[in-house]
Amino acid sequence: xxxxxxxxxxxxxxxxxxxxxxxxxxxxxxxxxxxxxxxxxxxxxxxxxxxxxxxxxxxxxxxxxxxxxxxxxxxxxxxxxxxxxxxxxxxxxxxxxxxxxxxxxxxxxxxxxxxxxxxxxxxxxxxxxxxxxxxxxxxxxxxxxxxxxxxxxxxxxxxxxxxxxxxxxxxxxxxxxxxxxxxxxxxxxxxxxxxxxxxxxxxxxxxxxxxxxxxxxxxxxxxxxxxxxxxxxxxxxxxxxxxxxxxxxxxxxxxxxxxxxxxxxxxxxxxxxxxxxxxxxxxxxxxxxxxxxxxxxxxxxxxxxxxx
Length: 308
Ligand SMILES: NC(=O)C1=CN([C@@H]2O[C@H](COP(=O)(O)OP(=O)(O)OC[C@H]3O[C@@H](n4cnc5c(N)ncnc54)[C@H](OP(=O)(O)O)[C@@H]3O)[C@@H](O)[C@H]2O)C=CC1
Ligand SMILES: CC(=O)N[C@@H](CCC(=O)OP(=O)(O)O)C(=O)O
Prior knowledge:
- The chain is an alpha/beta fold.
- It has two domains: about 120 residues, Rossmann fold (3-Layer(aba) Sandwich); about 170 residues, Dihydrodipicolinate Reductase, domain 2, CATH 3.30.360.10.
- It has nine helices and 13 strands.
- The strands form two sheets. It has a seven-stranded mixed sheet with strand order 8-9-7-10-13-12-11. Strands 2-1-3-4-6-5 form a six-stranded parallel sheet, sandwiched between helices.
- A hairpin with a 4-residue loop joins strand 12 and strand 13.
- Helix 1 crosses helix 9, helix 5 packs parallel to helix 7 and helix 5 crosses helix 8.
- The longest helix has 15 residues.
- It binds NADPH dihydro-nicotinamide-adenine-dinucleotide phosphate and ligand 2.
- The site of ligand 2 has 13 residues, from strand 9.
């Protein structure tokens, strides 16, 4: 018997990506609503309550409304929006982030998908904080560049009509909506300084965290930092710690995939390291993560339908 799944916001950028990953699977069946009624609360409520699993691919307010529309206690939710990432009663849907996180996701009724930028930042930083290599009150900073599909249909239209830019830093008030999620789930005492930018390419992401090793209390060498990450993600088919030494990384490196690649580069003589994550904002940054969480919650192969 196939498991009924409803994607609320299925016509949006993330929703369409999830549909693509679920197409052809006979263990799941998608509940559809008529396109003309896709924003009608009554039609959505009917679908939301008929599903075993709901994936919300909506703006934050619409995601909160969808949760209010659910009255069926059997309906379990994966929210791709920012609405519930630090909310009580919601589990953070990053199975590789902590020991035991995948088992907790498997049992959770409400799972919040991580944001695209926090996915890169947390994967790089959380194991180092957990291992005590980076003190929890360290003043971290992170810069990151996203493809323009990160801004959904509105930003895609802006860039594809020529209104974008080759490279556009933003959130210059240092109050981007992802900062609290990064601080909370890395378990940091202070918010990281977060400098995001959008580039004139459809999809893909590079996240960079500079780390001055020579002033860290334990003064680790570059390889010691890499070994902590290697141990943290051992056995994962999604999160990989690369052992290559490319002279450059490219925003395209993991675009079109659901992989998350981590690199630790640096210079021991200078006592400096650079932590680098590449991913697809629509892959492990959104749709890939949602499908992985769905698989885990439904007790299926965690990697089914993923682009690895
Ligand atoms: N794009 C990305 O890389 C990532 C996005 N996210 C998050 O995922 C969510 C979806 O983003 P994204 O797919 O990019 O956004 P889009 O704008 O591309 O899609 C959102 C969809 O939701 C629909 N919608 C809006 N309001 C309602 C409503 N009340 N009821 C039903 N449908 C509604 C929109 O309709 P219409 O077609 O009419 O506009 C649209 O189809 C957001 O919260 C976003 O922040 C998370 C990680 C990465
Ligand atoms: C390029 C761009 O604009 N990106 C979006 C983040 C996309 C994303 O992951 O946002 P969610 O938190 O909603 O998941 C932004 O900075 O707001």
